[in-house]
Amino acid sequence: MKNPRFAKMAALMLLGAMFAAGAVHANPFETTLPNGFHVIVKEDHRAPTAVQIVWYRAGSIDEKDGSSGLAHALEHLMFKGTKKVKPGEFSKLVAAAGGRDNAFTSRDYTAYFEQVPARALPEMMMLEADRMANLQIPQKEYDPEIKVVMEERRLRTEDDPTSLVHEALNSMAFQAHPYRRPVIGWMDDLEHMNRADAEQWYKTWYAPNNALLVIAGDVSHEAVFHLAAKYYGSIKPHALPERKPQNEPEQKGKRCVVVKAPARLPYVALAWKVPKLKDVDKDREPYALQVLAAVLDGNEASRLAKNLVRGQKIAQSAGAGYDSTVRGETLFVLDGQPAEGHTVAELEAALRGEIKRIQDEGVSAEELARIKTQTIASQVFKRDSVMGQAMEIGMLEAIGMDWRDIDKMQDKVRSVTADEVQVVAKKYFGDDTLTVATLDPQPIAENAAPKKPVIHHH
Length: 458
Hints:
Elements: H1 4-23, E1 29-32, E2 38-43, E3 49-56, H2 70-77, H3 89-96, E4 100-105, E5 110-117, H4 121-134, H5 139-158, H6 161-173, H7 187-192, H8 195-205, E6 211-217, H9 221-231, E7 255-262, E8 267-274, H10 285-297, H11 303-311, E9 315-322, E10 330-338, H12 344-361, H13 365-384, H14 386-398, H15 405-414, H16 418-428, E11 434-442
Parallel strand pairs: 2-6, 7-11
Antiparallel strand pairs: 1-2, 3-5, 3-6, 4-5, 8-10, 8-11, 9-10
Helix pairs in contact: 1-13, 2-5, 2-8, 4-9, 10-16, 11-12, 12-16, 13-14
Organism: Georgfuchsia toluolica
Signal peptide: 1-26
Keywords: Signal
């Protein structure tokens, strides 16, 4: 955090937010309908808007080999209409109500959202409940839409060397775990996918007892509970398939993969197997790993930017990433592009050198303080937006965690000590659990067609 006045302001804002939260102790409010549909409402009356997000606990983690990309393909097809709503009309109705809508698919879940003037919320709930129960996928809608998905794969992955490297990294780091498959799907699977596959996925996973509704904004929770019962309450639940754990066997040695693709600069990504957050109260290491990632790459003053990009000028860009809240397993990733005149091997050594310095020397009190202030500030900003609040609640609940733990998790990050950061740096960054993926840049064809923008759904 570059500006100390700003940091102080952020801390004061946080105290304000905490007192405000204490005053309306029960907010968010929640209920579960008899059909198993879980409803969470966060009242926020600062602006006359509302957000509805429906989360389905079905992502690429639930797919089988040969059907990769199915969760994401169905996300596209959810805009293809019901008995009441014609294909492509869903988004028009949202726009007519003065709102915007979209959807996203991840490894762990699929979610659909509308941001609207609060008065339009009942109509949005009616529309979303309608497609939970009554989706229709005519063949004439399926055929062009699967082509759109393939085109998205071409543009976002096959024409993007960095995406290709991450795809290769995951498929090398995970051999048994479903995270080895890309969310968008392998092209061959998309080519052989059919409408019956999509309908089967919908019938299997799109049930109220496998879904969650988060509504935030200028609403009364009683009114929302009433509307949820009215629109979603009559949808029949059904038994869900058993989900096997599919744990990754222990990695016993460094794995390397090289991707050759047309690109201007090389790129490298290093991924280590590390623990995820399982027990919010008892776990300590995931919080320490979170702080380690922030020490390396939280902002401009972080070590990778300061030492590798600006200091040694060995990297054009360098980053660190770690996500502790996932349904599956997780990786700690360091990545970057070497600067002109430097090699991937030099950058890989430099990235590992930054971990080694923390193993040997630890982190400073000043660094820790900065990260904790940053954590507080980013939390305040997230709470500033109704969408941010709904996302924060839903992302945790959709992977089987509890929204009540959000503040507790922030407190735990703030309680991390310098010793704990040094201990995880020493413990998890050896060769045996490391996978390295490197981009070997090939000449870019001079007459290559300019990239078209990615066309998103509906």
